[in-house]
Write the structure tokens for this entry.
Amino acid sequence: MGVAAAKSVANKKDLTGWRILQILTWLIGFGIFFCLVFYPSIGVILFWNILIPVAPLLIVLAVGVWRNVCPLASVNLLPRHFGFSKGRIMSASTQAKLGLISVLLLYFIVPLRHAVFNTNGHATAWLLFGMTITGLIMGTQFEWKSAWCSTLCPIHPVERLYGNNVLGAVKNAHCAECMNCVLPCPDSTPNMNPRVVKRSGYASVSGLLITGGLPGFVWGWFHVPDQHAFHSPMSFLGVYEMPVLGLAVTLSLYTILLQSKLIKESWLVRIFATAAVSCYYWYRIPSLLGFGIYTGDGMLFDAHGIIAEWIVSLLPVVFTLFFIYFLLIRKPNKKSWLIRPAFALRSRAAS
């Protein structure tokens, strides 16, 4: 057996575990989608109150693991894996524009949870279906993760912000070769964050919006109750009032600090990332256990009489201290999310 053939066999064996995990997470994802369609009340709990609360912690610790097994990514990358993608290289300008759209999509969709998705399993199913089909169609045209995972996916800006000091890099379970489809590649750039790319105005604005705006946006989001009925268009738009206000406050603060140069930008990114994820769990943990600001909203189970209230109050403090250590005190280890595969020997023109 030649050296190249031996390496190919070894690589396939290395990916066996990842393929099993991808299949398992896809089955779990399909199971949740099935419940959203046919058992919507159960599907809402499984998706919004179990899967989504776990995601930020996973992204902080090992976003590369999530990038390898995300069910949406596995479906969106099928055209490339099975060889029927045109494999066009997306231009840097298009990447930057889609990156900004992904941030705006995040800020548009999340408040709609209070208006629709938190209480409507069918609407959540349509949301997931729409994102999957969009990514799949893009995957038939563009190379690897430039089609969705590293540009238009509304979760990707959060990955860039939270995942800037991961535990370590893991093997890339999707890209067999590096085609330079995204520059810089978020998977292979050490300590990737939203402010790394500033070559265009679109990239600069998207970086500012997600880094400076997310902490306040998260705070504002938790100060809006789930709505079960709307009496006017203004009452519907009310779900955006507090998140947008919070976003504006922390974005202004970030911009002032950035311009003052009192704190290095790399530290500012880490501080605001820590604030965003800490704020999320500060409110999310109590709400999961029935101790949230709005009774019943986002509740996984009612822990009254089961868990002492002081313990529920202590858990967010513990999580906050952990994130302060992990993202601020712990020295950045210069690790990327995934190990970059070998560069391809051929090149393609940008679309």
In short: The beta strands are 170-171, 338-339. DSSP finds twelve helices and two strands in the chain. Confidence is low (pLDDT under 50) at residues 1-10, 347-351. The two ends are 39 Å apart (CA to CA).
